[in-house]
């Protein structure tokens, strides 16, 4: 048995996430030789299927989701041969005996992946324990959303914590598995050039944009209870913010990194009083266009409650109140039905203390570091050079020093976030997973904002689908003499 060999028990094996993301990711790991020979997987779901029918469903999903030039027969066959299926009523302890039997005599640790709604985590964990399916090496992987607010997240974490110690709980935030997000750690802590500049003396402000082109995609029921703040900011955007703002960890151990992230979350300024109206903009999309086609507004989507005040967009200006970042605004925005899918972080460096070039170009004269997650992953540093040509004098020209991962490292395929995360679970490494206190501090901060919205009864502002959000979100940054940066 090698270090990364596991028995994977996947609860919710016929669900959307499993078919769309988890099986393709596992297939790719297998194809790249990263699934040791003994690794096997049992899919668990309520449907009445036998192993063969299950393998066929997974094969169908792989055919749809994996690029055709990456589907090769040998790898597919080897991967499918690892899969078993168990029909299970998750809420009743009886069937769990079959899980224990599946594991019987295995020398490998078991990883339990809960790709199911959080309300049944408790049943599954307790039933696994009662049936004797667990031992001291079993790890558990859970998906967001971890709750709806601090109190509900604590309940969920308590239920898992009754059965598993924190050191064996892997809370997924799939943004942490994105290649560029990890590159942030390398960029910041391996490059003295950035390491020395990464503070309020040299950085004027930071932008984080996570714009999605999609709308609600048949998830109205879930989404309307959540809204963009809970669905995206509480987890993905705050995780990005933490990685940008945290102090250097003393090493790359999971807890060293997570301790630093927690300090950032604790230092985030709350929105109180006037800041609620001034520094946060909520939006909800109305009918408009997406990729040239007419699309309905949020309130006209299938299953919609036409009185809903749930936000599909949020923009905010916040600050990390500590020595490194005092006075540096962090502008965050994220929304559905934006003009394009664009996720990027822009670090704006301060200008030189004394300026000697063309006065008209003064506003140009600063560097930006753009860390792009989507659509294509890469890093660009905007620098100023002299415009070429005899007639240009000392005209400045901003231009990018680009690191396009696809071009710079053409042989390496950029793995999907889930590939990386599953690999880390197999290795038993937690640094890309979210610790309980991170989830809770993030909720604390979001909860006070939501309470403020509720107390003031602030309905969202409208924006047409296919636009960059409510005009007020643009005004929020332009009144500081800045603008949202959408180039690369
Ligand atoms: C999920 C949210 O966590 O992230 C979705 O629940 C969102 O609403 C998705 O669309 C975005 O992920 P990505 O990787 O496509 O940016």
UniProtKB/TrEMBL annotation:
Catalyses which reaction(s): D-glucose 6-phosphate + NADP(+) = 6-phospho-D-glucono-1,5-lactone + NADPH + H(+)
Presence of the UniProt keyword Oxidoreductase in the record: yes
Cited Pfam families: G6PD_C (PF02781), G6PD_N (PF00479)
Enzyme class: oxidoreductase
Residue span, Glucose-6-phosphate dehydrogenase NAD-binding domain: 10-183
GO terms of molecular function: glucose-6-phosphate dehydrogenase activity; NADP binding
Active-site residues annotated for this sequence: 236 (proton acceptor)
Domain (Glucose-6-phosphate dehydrogenase C-terminal): residue spans on this chain: 186-484
UniProt: substrate binding residues: 174, 178, 212, 231, 336, 341
Top-level taxon: Bacteria
EC number: 1.1.1.49
Gene Ontology biological process terms, A to Z: glucose metabolic process; pentose-phosphate shunt, oxidative branch
Record keywords: Carbohydrate metabolism, Glucose metabolism, NADP, Oxidoreductase
Binding annotation for NADP(+): 46, 89-90, 144
The protein's annotated pathway: Carbohydrate degradation; pentose phosphate pathway; D-ribulose 5-phosphate from D-glucose 6-phosphate (oxidative stage): step 1/3
Family matches, as InterPro entries: G6P_DH, G6P_DH_AS, G6P_DH_C, G6P_DH_NAD-bd, NAD(P)-bd_dom_sf
GO cellular component, one term: cytosol
PANTHER family attached to this UniProt entry: GLUCOSE-6-PHOSPHATE 1-DEHYDROGENASE, GLUCOSE-6-PHOSPHATE 1-DEHYDROGENASE G6PD
Family: Belongs to the glucose-6-phosphate dehydrogenase family.
Function: Catalyzes the oxidation of glucose 6-phosphate to 6-phosphogluconolactone.
Protein's recorded name: Glucose-6-phosphate 1-dehydrogenase
Organism this protein belongs to: Franzmannia pantelleriensis
Lineage start: Bacteria, Pseudomonadati, Pseudomonadota, Gammaproteobacteria, Oceanospirillales
């Amino acid at each position: 048995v090698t270090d990364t060999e596991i028995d994977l028990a996947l609860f919710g094996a016929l669900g959307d996430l499993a078919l769309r993301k988890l099986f393709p990711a596992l297939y790719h790991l297998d194809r790249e030789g990263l699934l040791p020979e003994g690794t096997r997987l049992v899919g668990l779901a309520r449907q009445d299927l036998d192993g063969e029918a299950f393998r066929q469903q997974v094969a169908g999903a792989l055919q749809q989701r994996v690029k055709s030039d990456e589907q090769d027969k040998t790898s597919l066959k080897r991967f499918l041969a690892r899969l078993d299926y168990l029909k299970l009523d998750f809420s009743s302890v009886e069937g769990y005996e079959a899980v224990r039997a599946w594991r019987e005599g295995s020398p490998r640790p078991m990883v339990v992946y809960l790709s199911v709604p959080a309300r049944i985590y408790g049943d599954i964990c307790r039933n696994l324990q009662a049936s004797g399916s667990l031992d001291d090496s079993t790890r558990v992987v859970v998906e967001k959303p971890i709750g709806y607010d601090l109190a509900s997240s604590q309940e969920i974490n308590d239920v898992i914590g009754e059965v598993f110690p924190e050191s064996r709980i892997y809370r997924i935030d799939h943004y942490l598995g994105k290649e560029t997000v990890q590159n942030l750690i390398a960029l910041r802590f391996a490059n003295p050039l950035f390491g020395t500049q990464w503070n309020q003396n040299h950085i004027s402000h930071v932008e984080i944009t996570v714009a999605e082109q999609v709308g609600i995609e048949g998830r109205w029921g879930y989404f309307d209870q959540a809204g963009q703040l809970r669905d995206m900011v509480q987890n993905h955007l705050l995780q990005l913010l933490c990685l940008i703002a945290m102090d250097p960890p003393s090493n790359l151990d999971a807890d060293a990194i997570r301790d630093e992230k927690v300090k950032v979350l604790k230092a985030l300024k709350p929105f109180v009083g006037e800041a609620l109206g001034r520094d946060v903009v909520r939006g909800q999309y109305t009918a408009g266009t997406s990729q040239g086609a007419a699309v309905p507004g949020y309130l006209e989507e299938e299953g919609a409650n036409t009185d809903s005040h749930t936000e599909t967009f949020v923009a905010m200006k916040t600050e990390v109140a500590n020595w490194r970042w005092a006075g540096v605004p962090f502008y965050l925005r994220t929304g559905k039905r934006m003009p394009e899918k664009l996720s990027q972080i822009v670090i704006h460096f301060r200008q030189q203390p004394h300026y000697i070039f063309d006065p008209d170009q003064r506003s140009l004269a600063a560097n930006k570091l753009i860390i792009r997650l989507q659509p294509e992953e890469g890093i660009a540093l905007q620098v100023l050079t002299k415009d070429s040509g005899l007639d240009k004098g000392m005209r400045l020209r901003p231009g990018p020093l680009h690191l396009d991962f696809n071009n710079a490292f053409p042989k390496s395929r950029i793995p999907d976030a889930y590939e990386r995360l599953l690999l880390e679970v197999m290795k038993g490494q937690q640094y890309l997973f979210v610790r309980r206190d991170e989830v809770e501090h993030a909720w604390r901060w979001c909860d006070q904002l939501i309470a403020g919205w509720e107390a003031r009864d602030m309905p969202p502002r409208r924006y047409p689908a296919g636009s960059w959000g409510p005009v007020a979100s643009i005004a929020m940054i332009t009144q500081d003499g800045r603008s949202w940066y959408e180039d690369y």
